[in-house]
Structure formats: C-alpha cells, structure tokens
TrEMBL record:
Annotated segments matching region Disordered: 50-70, 108-154, 179-198, 513-536
Low complexity bias (residue ranges): 513-523
Residue spans of biased composition, Pro residues class: 55-70, 135-146
InterPro entries: Quinoprotein_ADH-like_sf (IPR011047), WD40/YVTN_repeat-like_dom_sf (IPR015943)
SUPFAM superfamilies: Quinoprotein alcohol dehydrogenase-like
Upper classification of the organism: Bacteria, Pseudomonadati, Planctomycetota, Planctomycetia, Gemmatales
Name of this protein: Uncharacterized protein
Length: 536
C-alpha cells in the first residue's frame, strides 16, 4: 500500500494529460457548478448602451499591408518662354571675387549644369556706402538753363500818321486832317478785338491841334506850331502849352525844337523886324514837365528856312544845317559865328555829339570837330573826309570812345553798291569794322550799352559796338510800301517807326546766371552774341 501511495500522484497527472489528448475518452471529470445569471443592472454600461440601441454593422477589417503607389515619371523641363521653374533651395558658395552679374536656374531637380538655362544678365546694385559724408556747405539750387535766344519778339501796329511815343498801354500818333489842322491820337498798344456792335466807338482818343513839326523825348511828345509849343504826355493828354510872348503879328515864329538837356527843352524862334530890316533868333529854355520859362538867349543871325537846328549842349553851340553849309552859333552868343561850307548834303543826315559833327554827303562822309576858343568863339579843327561812300541815314556818334577820340557808326552805300554799317574812328578814314546788309539802312542807328541797333529794309539788327559781331537779326513783317525811318530805345524795347507803322521789338528774359551784373551792362538783357552775319 505504501508503494501504491508513492506512485499515485504521477499516475494521476499522466491520466489527465491523456484525457485531454483523447477528447474526453476515458474518465470524464466532474462538471463545473452552474453559474447563476447576473442581473442586468450589474452589467457594464457599455454593454447596456449597445443592447439599448439597434444593432450596428460591424466595421470592415483594415488590411495590415498597404502597397506603395506606382512610380511616376518626372515631367519634362518647362521652356523659358512659358515660365521659370522653381528650383530647390541651393546653398550658394561665396566666391573670392565679386559675383558675376549672371543668374543660372536648373531646368528640373537634379539637372546637370549642361541642362541649365542661362537667363539675361541682371545688374547688381553697387554696394551701399556706409561711410559718413564729410560736411559740406549747402549750395543754392540753380535755375534750369533756358534755350539760347536767337530771335526777339516783335509787335506791329498800323495807323494813319506819325508815331510820337507812348507807354506800355498806349501809343501817341500825330495825324494831319487838312486845312492847317491836325490831331493827336492816343491808341491802345494791345491788339484790337473785333467789335461785337459795328456802331460801338473805337478806343482812340483824339485831340485837335494846329499843324507843326513833331519831336519826342522821354515821356513827352512835342508839336511846334507857328506860335505855340504843345507838350503831350504818354496818355495822349495835353500836359502844357507855351505861347510866344507879344502880339500875334509881331513877326516872331517858332521854328523847331533844337534839343533836350538837364530836364529842359530848347525851342528856337526867328523874328523879322520889318521897320528895321533885322532878323533875330531866340533860344527858349523851358522846363520839360511844366513848360515854365527858364532862360532866353538872343542870337543875332538869320536861319535858313529849311535849316535843321541841333543844340549840342547849353554852353556849347547851336548848329544850323542847311543845304550847302553848317553854321555853329556859340553859346553864350559871340561876335562871330563859325561857318563851314560843305558840299550839298541831305540835311537829315547830320549828327552832333560833344562838338563832333558828322555829315553825310552824296560823295562821302565828313567829320568836323568844333572846339571853343576864348570861351565863346567856336573854331573847327581839321576834319576827316572819307570818300567813295554815300550816306543813307544819319550816323550815331559815341564820344570819348577811346584815347584817340570818338567812334562814328555810319550807314553808307559803298562805291560798288554795297549797303554797309561802318564803324570809323575819329582820326581814321578806314573803318574799324563793317557789316554788309542786303538793303539800305533807312534810320539812324541807336547806341545802347555795348551794342548798336539798326534797321535795313525790313530786318532789325543788333551788333556788338566794339567788334561788329551780329548778336541777332529779326525779320519784320512789313508791307512793300512801308519804310522804317526812325529808331529809338524806350523802356527796355526797340521801337522802329515810319509813316503809318510802329514796330515794338523786345527780347525774352535772360537767365540770371548768364549775366550776373545787368546794371554794369544795360544791354545784357537783350540777348547773347552770335557769330557774324553771313548775309551778303
């Protein structure tokens, strides 16, 4: 029994294993005790919720292996005409020298340098200067440069009569109406506007006056009638009248205005004393602005009816130019006046400045120098005669031009029929320079600053007074029958006039930097010199 008890445990183990392997054949174990059913309240909430809801379709099982997508061939490179492909980021290498101004973009990822596309060169901006600038003095901004002035601006006015002067708004015209009467007209300087109503009156003021000789100076125009001198201002109004003293039948008549000096106008009269057969000349000095008498000088001489009277200066001489002679009457009067006989000459072609007389003759140019001796007697120094030329207009004289004397600017016609403005020195018969023009010079030249202005035909010239270089020329639209016979520089513009026509010429303003000192050279406002005129 002892031996059986020792082998009982292994035998039971073997028997249990065999029972499992044989499917329960053999000895069957005792069945387990039944488990009593648990109440529904004791079940988990999850199961309770599932049992309360309708049945759900079970989820499809997910495969444990997902095959990779099929491989895709790389796209071909995009042409440059369509666009620039986006390149992957590339870390550039820093070269030892400045980078080239050329960018390279690969056509596709992994492309070699042979497949790269070269784009147009792009400029790199220069490196910024980080250094501090040195302190400098601020400079004023310079005005923009204007184009070079080659032509002035001209305005042409036409009327019936003789131009007497005016201002920027109106000009004064003298016109004879017949029967010994005339009128002074004040006309607007602006271009006329057509009237809306034909019956409207024009903007012209008219003042009736007696006929006479006309002259102008500064802002006044003067009309010399038989026994009165009438001063007219720039607005066309009569400023004052001077009437000869004495009875109207005393034989005294006004001849002409002889000149202007120091705010005075000098007018000459001649009186014939019938009972004595004597002739006396009177020189009246009147204040220009009021007409009051300043002085009266008696000259015991007879003036030729056609004489042109020019007063050189109050204490110099009164010159009377006639057809064949020049008479210099000393002031104050002396016992003997000096008479110079000259060939026949147009009396309008005579000029006087500081006792230097320049006369134009049909055969030449004569320059006579008068100087006082014994304080009131005039004598003539040896004259300069230039032959082979004929004067076409009075000359302009610049006194004290140099140590050698004055300079004469004479409009002449040469022996070979060339029209010339010639500059002669006082003691030389050959011109210092000359400017040839295609037509005759019909008005006396005008000196202003360092320039000479003259008109030839319908062309106005400005030349340098020292060299004769042409600064500019301007063609004036004149009718074939119109002629310019007078030239003057007034209020910053050249005014050329003739019978029935007035031309106002002015330049545009010059840049301030071109002429820093306009006061030193008044002509600097009138343009810039140019090469000489190539006209024949």
């Amino acid at each position: 029994m002892a031996a059986l008890g020792r082998w009982r445990a292994p035998v039971l183990v073997v028997a249990g294993v065999l029972s499992v392997l044989t499917g329960g054949s053999g000895m069957s174990p005792n069945p387990p005790d039944p488990v009593p059913p648990a109440p529904i309240e004791s079940l988990p909430k999850a199961f309770t919720a599932v049992s309360a809801q309708p049945p759900m379709r079970p989820a499809q099982p997910q495969p444990l292996y997902v095959p990779p997508p099929p491989s895709v061939e790389p796209l071909p490179p995009i042409p440059l005409s369509i666009g620039i492909p986006v390149a992957p980021p590339v870390t550039p290498t820093v070269p030892s020298v400045a980078p080239s101004a050329t960018l390279y973009f690969p056509s596709a990822p992994g492309a070699s340098s042979a497949g790269e596309h070269k784009l147009p060169a792009l400029p790199f901006p220069p490196p910024a200067d980080v250094s501090l600038p040195s302190p400098t003095k601020p400079t004023a901004p310079q005005p923009p440069a204007e184009p070079e002035i080659t032509e002035p601006v001209a305005t042409v006015h036409r009327f019936t009569g003789t131009y007497l002067g005016g201002n920027d708004r109106r000009h004064i015209v003298y016109a004879e109406t017949g029967d010994g009467r005339a009128e002074v007209q004040s006309r607007p300087s602006a271009r006329s506007i057509p009237k809306a109503d034909a019956d409207d009156k024009d903007d012209v003021t008219r003042i009736a006056i007696p006929t006479g000789k006309v002259a102008r100076h500064d802002r006044f125009a003067f009309v010399t009638a038989a026994r009165e001198l009438i001063a007219i201002d720039s607005n066309g109004d009569i400023e004052w009248r001077f009437t000869l003293p004495g009875k109207p039948d005393n034989g005294e008549r006004l001849l002409d205005v002889a000149g202007f000096h120091d705010g005075q106008v000098f007018v000459v009269s001649q009186q014939v004393i019938h009972d004595k057969g004597n002739t006396l000349g009177q020189l009246y000095a009147l204040k220009t602005d009021t007409g009051s008498l300043v002085s009266l000088t008696t000259i015991k001489a007879r003036f030729d009816p056609d004489a042109r009277l020019i007063l050189d200066r109050p204490n110099g001489a009164l010159f009377a130019f006639s057809r064949a002679r020049i008479v210099a009457h000393a002031l104050p009067p002396s016992q003997a006046d000096h008479t110079c006989e000259v060939p026949t000459l147009p009396i309008a072609h005579a000029s006087v400045t500081n006792a230097t007389v320049c006369t134009m003759t049909p055969t030449g140019l004569i320059i006579i120098h008068f100087q006082p001796i014994h304080s009131n007697v005039l004598h003539a120094r040896p004259s300069t005669q230039i032959g082979g030329v004929a004067g076409t207009a009075p000359a302009a004289i610049r006194s004290n031009y140099s140590q050698s004397g004055a300079r004469i600017y004479a409009p002449v016609k040469s022996a070979v029929s060339h029209f010339v403005l010639a500059a002669f020195d006082e003691h030389h018969a050959t011109p210092a320079w000359q400017v040839r023009v295609p037509k005759a010079i019909t008005a006396a030249p005008v000196l202003y600053g360092s320039c000479v202005y003259f008109v030839a035909g319908n062309v106005l010239y400005r030349v340098n007074a020292d060299t004769g270089a042409v600064c500019w020329k301007h063609t004036i639209p004149l009718a074939p029958s119109e002629t310019l016979t007078d030239l003057a520089f007034t209020r910053g513009e050249i005014r050329a006039s003739g019978p029935g026509v007035l031309v106002r010429v002015t330049d545009r303003p010059e840049p301030a930097a071109a002429f820093p000192s306009a006061a030193a050279n008044p002509a600097s406002r009138m343009g810039v010199p140019h090469p000489p005129d190539p006209s024949p």
